[in-house]
Design brief:
109 residues, 5-stranded antiparallel beta sheet, globular, 2 helices, 7 strands, alpha+beta
C-alpha cells in the first residue's frame, strides 16, 4: 500500500497516465484503474466488465464542480469528472489494490 501511495504521488507531479490492472483479468467486475494527470488535474477511470458481457467506465462525479470543461492530455472533460485532490486518487488506487474494486460512492457510472 505504501508503495502505491508513493508511486502515485510521485508520478502525479507529471503529465501522463498511470494504470493498475488485475491479472488475470476477471470475466466480470473491475479489472483496471487509470489515472490521467495533467497540470494538477486528475481524471480517474475504473474499467469494469458487466455480467451481460458489456463494459462500463466508472468515474468521479463531483456535481458541485459545475459544467465547465477541463483539458486533460488533449481531451476536454466535464469538471465534475476531475479532481485536484491527490488524496482521493491515492485512496482509490489503494482500495483497488486491496479489494479489486472502488466504492461506487466514489467512482460511479
Amino acid at each position: 500500500m505504501e508503495d502505491v501511495e508513493s508511486i502515485v504521488f510521485e508520478y502525479s507531479k507529471f503529465d501522463g497516465v498511470i494504470s493498475l490492472s488485475v491479472t488475470p483479468v476477471p470475466e466480470t467486475g473491475p479489472y483496471e484503474i487509470n489515472l490521467y494527470a495533467d497540470s494538477g488535474n486528475y481524471l480517474l477511470m475504473l474499467n469494469q466488465y458487466l455480467d451481460d458481457g458489456g463494459h462500463v467506465v466508472r468515474t468521479l462525479n463531483n456535481t458541485s464542480a459545475g459544467t465547465k470543461r477541463i483539458d486533460v492530455l488533449g481531451d476536454c472533460y466535464q469538471a465534475s469528472l476531475i479532481t485536484r485532490d491527490i488524496g482521493v486518487v491515492i485512496s482509490c488506487f489503494q482500495e483497488f489494490l486491496s479489494s479489486g474494486n472502488v466504492s461506487s460512492l466514489v467512482l460511479s457510472v
